[in-house]
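Study both lines:
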Amino acid sequence: MPDRETLHVAEFLGDGISAELSRSVHEVAAALPIHVRFHPVDLSLEARRLRAEACYDAAMQAIGQHRVAMKYPTVTETDSPNKVLRERCRFSVIHRPVRSLQGVRTRHDGTVDLDIIRIAVGGTYEDAGRRIGEDAAVSIRVIERRPSRDAALFAFRLAQRLDCGVVSTSKYTIQRATDGLFEEVVSEVGAAFPGVPHHAELFDSLLYKLILKPEAYRVVVTPNEYGDFLSDMACGMVGSLGLGASASYAFDERGDVGIAMFDPAGGTAPDIAGKGVCNPSAALFAFAMLLSHCGFRGLGAMLDHAIRAAIAAGESTRDLGGTRDTAAFVAGVIDRLRPAAG
């Protein structure tokens, strides 16, 4: 299609509902006024059992060449594909946007419009710990300057674009060395953004206040494990973990994004795999994030709006209280895309 711009995307295929999510993304991509060419890599458990190193090498070659990737859910057996990719790609920041959706029932009255910027490495997740005798155990918790800087810089740049402030959150009064270093780095980065308000809040206090008044928060930057907890809680506030999309970023020495990977936050859902009833919303939201990252912000926003409009109209999948199967939901999204794409 020489009359349309071509976007090349590495695609990491996984397990369970992965094939259905991929098909949904491809169908939506075909409705856009650009040509999206996907370059698939099989990261399914079956493929990894046969040739794990070859699978990961192929994934690295694809994302290295095309600079962006869509990834679908994968089973963890002996290795975690997410962990392997994070280490090999040197992802240091995870961005999880969480927004309230009209048409989704929740047990919370507030409106959530939150961008959670999480350090992707360190914290308590790098060391499984060790037992000391029968009655004690210990693990090492690491906070590093470089990933903290990457996360802070991403947060302040995003807040500058959104015309809002940044809240950094940790347990800096207790974890004075580790979380203290994180907050120190965030303040240093913030000094280069005098037009972006910044303040720090204790993590437990932020959770409490977020429940009471979510409208008070927009961009939050935090260490690894805190961001993990906060992301899942925020998805619960908007009604479903199945609505969460995620992006992982690796940065160059200047703090600019080098490579990026986008994925739905949910799992492989083996109980419904192959039945055509899974909710592809998170995968489609992730694809919208990819489009925006690649410079197609108008198309990304258009897709985001089309997903939300379909759900608001009650054209949702069963997990959200609707009656549509996967294909019918995607068709509803595409119907809303075509008039806008013109």
